[in-house]
Design brief:
Blueprint lengths: L5 H22 L1 H19 L4 H31 L5 H32 L2
Helix pairs in contact: 1-2, 2-3, 3-4
Length: 121
């Protein structure tokens, strides 16, 4: 086992993470839409009268959607390497990942509905 300098390892890991984010922003349409929504959420939060805690919760809730999208995209790429032909098991895996994203998006819609109702009562 090779031991590395911890700082160098952190820098390399950060670079790989940024490479993954840039790849997703350039090549994954769903992630691009989610990034646009994230920017819109950031702008909207400047104008919606919420507490700092609520604003942070709203931001992190959408970041969960984006993180799941990255997991979904990476897993789909791995599935496609396993077998390009239709397989029920691979479809089920892709569908379950999609469902996870759907659930987090629904939660965000609910959360924003609650925040908007609270802010403008």
């Amino acid at each position: 086992m090779r031991y590395r300098n911890p700082l160098k390892r952190l820098v390399n890991a950060s670079r790989y993470s940024l490479d993954g984010l840039l790849y997703a922003l350039k090549n994954e349409q769903a992630f691009q839409y989610e990034a646009i929504i994230f920017v819109a959420v950031c702008v909207a939060l400047c104008f919606v009268p919420l507490t700092l805690t609520e604003k942070i919760f709203a931001l992190f809730s959408w970041l969960v959607v984006m993180a799941l999208e990255l997991v979904n995209s990476a897993t789909e790429k791995a599935f496609d390497l396993i077998d390009k032909n239709f397989r029920t098991e691979i479809k089920a895996g892709k569908d379950m990942l999609s469902a996870a994203i759907f659930i987090t998006v629904c939660f965000n819609i609910f959360l924003w509905g609650v925040f908007i109702l609270k802010a403008f009562q």
